[in-house]
Amino acid sequence: xxxxxxxxxxxxxxxxxxxxxxxxxxxxxxxxxxxxxxxxxxxxxxxxxxxxxxxxxxxxxxxxxxxxxxxxxxxxxxxxxxxxxxxxxxxxxxxxxxxxxxxxxxxxxxxxxxxxxxxxxxxxxxxxxxxxxxxxxxxxxxxxxxxxxxxxxxxxxxxxxxxxxxxxxxxxxxxxxxxxxxxxxxxxxxxxxxxxxxxxxxxxxxxxxxxxxxxxxxxxxxxxxxxxxxxxxxxxxxxxxxxxxxxxxxxxxxxxxxxxxxxxxxxxxxxxxxxxxxxxxxxxxxxxxxxxxxxxxxxxxxxxxxxxxxxxxxxxxxxxxxxxxxxxxxxxxxxxxxxxxxxxxxxxxxxxxxxxxxxxxxxxxxxxxxxxxxxxxxxxxxxxxxxxxxxxxxxxxxxxxxxxxxxxxxxxxxxxxxxxxxxxxxxxxxxxxxxxxxxxxxxxxxxxxxxxxxxxxxxxxxxxxxxxxxxxxxxxxxxxxxxxxxxxxxxxxxxxxxxxxxxxxxxxxxxxxxxxxxxxxxxxxxxxxxxxxxxxxxxxxxxxxxxxxxxxxxxxxxxxxxxxxxxxxxxxxxxxxxxxxxxxxxxxxxxxxxxxxxxxxxxxxxxxxxxxxxxxxxxxxxxxxxxxxxxxxxxxxxxxxxxxxxxxxxxxxxxxxxxxxxxxxxxxxxxxxxxxxxxxxxxxxxxxxxxxxxxxxxxxxxxxxxxxxxxxxxxxxxxxxxxxxxxxxxxxxxxxxxxxxxxxxxxxxxxxxxxxxxxxxxxxxxxxxxxxxxxxxxxxxxxxxxxxxxxxxxxxxxxxxxxxxxxxxxxxxxxxxxxxxxxxxxxxxxxxxx
Length: 834
Prior knowledge:
The protein is mainly β. Helices cover 6% and strands 59% of the residues. The protein has one helix and 57 strands.
């Protein structure tokens, strides 16, 4: 947290390889234990040879007793017997040579805590030259120090006398030669010894009394069992220095089942009791387990008094390679350290210095899924399972830490509307084609802590991840869709295994805190640019099951030409829909050159249908504006696909609208200012129909004067086909004003004039007004100069060029008539100049 994963990141990817490497380290530690046994054997033989030499060099204090069937020779030191030689028969030649038969030599420790035996059928001793030669086979039973005790394996060979115990070493060789002056006993023949169920064979050996060393000269081989499994150790040469408690090997190779460890040389630092305190392997150190290979220039290990590994280090550039056909992997680090528990099981493994581990895994369908984890330092922690095995529990990565993993992403082949998590519908499913691909999840940061859990079969899986410092969560989909979030702190949980499908590289939940920034790129569509959305927030929470991203605290979102600012936003990443709350400010792209802006308490934006819903309250309504036009209401719904707008108040409130337009009369040339203010109970606007409908009561003021009624419809001049709307005021209830129709209890107020009727029609082309009524309630105009004017319809203009007012009366009604008489009255009144 590679492994590492959005998908199946299977964390187990790097963990499995790492556990194998740790096991190889354990094998190396066990090898060191076997080497110690060989060292103990050498020390015992040296003690035997040294005591023999002392006896022959000093005649004082020695006694020779001839017996019927042989003789016994003994050597004492400070009143204690340290050496005895018993021969069944002895013959002395005149030239100083001795022939001894059925010889048993016993060497005693100074503390009388040990008795080693050397025995053979025939020995020759040249007293003048100080050389002793064994004729035929020589055997020895050597007791090891009391601090080293092992249990022999079943069926291990005993001594010739049949009294070998678990605390002794049985040795067999031929052609042994001892040179008294040099203090060296040597043989060129094969030497073999048994100890604790192990058999060691070498070709040629030297026992040097000064500096108390044993040298196995060639073809060193050790066979037996290690932790209940067959093992074999070979070396080109082995040396044991008892004075400095050192044992060294040249070209050692350890093989146990399918595991192998080798190096150019190895050095063991022994305790006084013979156990290994510290081990070093130098030069092309290689540890192999099955298909996994681990190599480094140097290996150092520390063991307990019971030869249980405590710590180990691989230095000088560590490399790992796995040739597993189903899951090949490789890794490297400058250094690797291992710490073991009291049983020798790995407790902690640390890889430092640009540590990296990569792996690939086949999904069974011919698709390879990549896994990767890296960092300047990787620390893996283990715990013991119920069966006593070491199980990986946590990985801590620091310094440019990153984990990545792939998983399969496929769309179902069902209905066209079926949704696939993480992948947008690009029309592939509509055609009945099943889309499939690979999606990748990666997490990076300054400090990552990955926690693992154990599932059935003892397999480790990703459980959760905690990251700090410049954290980044990146998810790349099968169709190149991209989701990236960055922040100060990151917490992730993983999907694991569900329904028999391994999805542990896929993110289940992700929470990010502090300076959160997000970037979403939609799936690529043929012939279209990839959609990009960006955002910022104080906190972010992602839930994969619902594919919802919750943003809180100073949220800023930008998606194409749409931007959104709010206290909190819920974003559906599958559909692109967003729900915003708290001081919402939105900017929406319009069909004109002017963008649409909205301020509201809440907002819901539907990306596919391009419907935006904004809500406020009676006290604080939502407000939408574009250039000089604006709408205020408790609820505003904008459909950018249908080009409609619906505004509704809260309770008994009103909808307030302001729209700008400009029109010039063709006949009069009158220019009407484009500002109209409207208060209504509702507003329905259609840019396609080029009209805005206000339901009542409606109150309008501005270029037309003050007008009220129950329903008002404003018609706008359509933009010529192919023309670009670029003039100020065009777009939302903008553009050229064509006409205004006010119906139901119409009241009109203009300077010096008031009118009443059932319908008022204003035509922008000539700046004319037509006020009409009904048979029972004809229109009526009150003029400051003319008094009251009525008729079937009243036509007039406002703001004429001659600064006068003209009222045209058509069809003045006759009292009591069923139908109005057709009459036309025109009155012209010259107004006084101001």
